[in-house]
Amino acid sequence: MSHQLLKGKKGIIFGALDEKSIAWKTALKCYEEGAQIVLTNAPVALRMGEINKLAEACGNAPVIGADVTNMDDLKNLFEKSMEHFGGKVDFVLHSIGMSLNVRKGKHYTELNYEWNAKTLDISAMSLHRVLRTAWDMDAINDWGSVVALTYIAAQRVFPDYNEMADAKSLLESVTRSFGYHYAVKKKVRVNTISQSPTKTTAGSGVKGFDGFINYAEKMSPLGNASAEDCANYIAVMFSDLTRMVTMQNLFHDGGFSFTGVTAEVIEQMEKE
Ligand code: NAI
């Protein structure tokens, strides 16, 4: 059901790879809530062609390629988006994550540092790059809202999350630091949403993901939050209903982050 929460708003959505992507569900939700959007992803991801289906479902939204580690691509993206909208944007979703060491099977204690630098750039400093580009071009309206997606491995150890734990810590730090400056200068809000494990391409790359997602399900009083639930939360964060929220890491995890143990987990342990 639509509440037209985002009526008249315009935004850029990074990271819709396929219909499982959190960004995909978010694009559909924002469109349903009355927003106009521009979709973007890395050129190599666009070649899959899937995103064109999403663009069509979002009122023929433009699709503009941008590697998030390339400043020229980001400038072009914001320029073209502002041209298309006839003005500045109101929201940006950063839904991007990639770990080269995980992909290549390197253990955390044996990181390849060149790959690690790339991982931190794609998954964390890219938020700085996006905010910096928007800042330099004055591309976000006052009270605009930027959301990036993160995971609780930034605060607590999940051994197989590997170098992505460090990337997410950095991402959350950039959110606070840039969030401060953008709030003071332009009243632009920057937050991260810390999402439950979710079956997507990026999510499934984590070793032992099936065991992990079942464990989180049992450890969350409400159960794991789905990608659709996450899209709903993001839409609220883009709306004017949350205008005083900034520089926060917001847990969206069915209660997992504040649960010590659940009856279900204890029962499971008693079986052993
Ligand atoms: P996904 O695989 O659908 O999305 C990741 C996106 O990052 C893809 O669209 C990919 O093309 C894009 N990307 C990678 N390198 C890029 C580059 N150089 N330039 C531009 N885009 C690039 O997976 P998902 O799960 O939807 O991931 C979205 C975000 O949610 C990520 O930040 C992820 O870490 C985060 N997250 C995911 C969880 C999960 O369990 N799936 C849990 C918590 C957070």
UniProtKB/TrEMBL annotation:
Q: From the Swiss-Prot or TrEMBL record, give the protein name.
A: Enoyl-[acyl-carrier-protein] reductase [NADH]
Name the positions where NAD(+) binds.
15, 21-22, 67-68, 96, 168
What family does this chain come from, according to its entry?
Belongs to the short-chain dehydrogenases/reductases (SDR) family. FabI subfamily.
Q: In which pathway does it act?
A: Lipid metabolism; fatty acid biosynthesis
User: What sort of enzyme, by top EC class, is this?
Assistant: oxidoreductase
| Recorded catalytic activity of this chain's protein | a 2,3-saturated acyl-[ACP] + NAD(+) = a (2E)-enoyl-[ACP] + NADH + H(+)
Q: Sorted alphabetically, which keywords does the UniProt record give?
A: Fatty acid biosynthesis, Fatty acid metabolism, Lipid biosynthesis, Lipid metabolism, NAD, Oxidoreductase
Q: Which residues form the active site?
A: 151 (proton acceptor), 161 (proton acceptor)
EC number, UniProt record: 1.3.1.9
Q: Which InterPro entries does the record associate with it?
A: Enoyl-ACP_Rdtase_NADH, NAD(P)-bd_dom_sf, SDR_fam
Q: Name one GO biological process term.
A: fatty acid biosynthetic process
Taxon lineage:
Bacteria, Pseudomonadati, Bacteroidota, Chitinophagia, Chitinophagales
GO molecular-function annotation terms? enoyl-[acyl-carrier-protein] reductase (NADH) activity
